């Protein structure tokens, strides 16, 4: 049977109302899926279950609502102008971010969440087959991007304390990505440490993913002016309580921003809608509310960390809105499941070196009291 006859046979099976559903799916995949899709291993987001009400401490969302000024700006932007496309350049947000970070608008790139900015970065700065280096325990989307864009990812082991060994990040034959503070460990690097990496790799791009930096980390934003090879990526999802709005941005040399713009405008010129632009500009301007929310999260984090240590847990130092914890005698998967059954969702990663850890988002004070109460019961029952 020739190729055209085989294809005809497969199409006939697809159209047949009597064909087995599973078999039908396999045939459709074999005909229409690209090799890139077949070989991809997508990112797995935190659970968003609908079977019952949970205290959600698994996706690192801010427990506090967005700025009232941001919400007012979004409501005001919900008018007849929604029939019109938004500004493809996002000029009002670029100018606001440039003023905030004391840069020029040409240093600013904006996108639909920091994940999109990172995805565009893989396309803008790495060719298929290029090497990119990042820690072996870090944001798992980096591996996903490397695989789907054909980039050779090289994972550099964290040390025994789950800290980035900066000496291993020097003089590398490829690009570098550092989440700072790191996720899921929560540990942070200093600006002086970032400087060392930049100076040791002057011909390689260094991408610093600062999704959690506002909860006690040190931002590398000021280094952009003096380091052409630095791209700093941030988001409004965490510290500014706008995860549902999807706003991310990058700070870098104008030539790096131009590269990102070329990718964006080859895929989707309008990455941010009118509501996102209005809300993010207002949120950025409400500095007092932003600082107060971060302060409350940090205060709760430190209190809960001490309580967890008193309960016998290993708690890594955190500069984020989550804690990375492990019990010395109870497996992480068991704790995860027991807490879920009690209405508490946390994050468990079934990966080497961290399979006994749980990542616990810092919720409201009420949420964390409930979490600790249930965790104490679980530990007592299992110990």
Q: What is the topological layout?
A:
Layout: H1 3-15, H2 21-32, H3 35-39, E1 55-56, H4 68-77, H5 91-101, E2 108-111, H6 113-125, E3 131-135, H7 141-148, E4 152-156, E5 175-179, H8 191-200, E6 206-209, E7 230-235, E8 248-252, H9 254-267, H10 274-285, H11 287-310, E9 314-315, E10 322-326, H12 332-341, E11 344-345, E12 347-348, E13 357-361, H13 365-382
Parallel strand pairs: 1-11, 3-4, 3-5, 5-6, 6-7
Antiparallel strand pairs: 2-8, 7-8, 9-10, 10-13, 12-13
Helix pairs in contact: 1-2, 4-10, 5-10, 6-7, 6-9
What can you tell me about this protein's structure?
The protein is an alpha/beta fold and 383 residues long. It has three domains: 8-39, no CATH class; 55-63 and 288-382, Aspartate Aminotransferase, domain 1, CATH 3.90.1150.10; 68-285, 3-Layer(aba) Sandwich (Aspartate Aminotransferase, domain 2), CATH 3.40.640. It is 42% helix and 14% strand. The protein has 13 helices and 13 strands. Helix 1 crosses helix 2 (21-32), helix 5 (91-101) runs parallel beside helix 10 and helix 6 crosses helix 7 (141-148). The N and C termini lie far apart (64 Å).
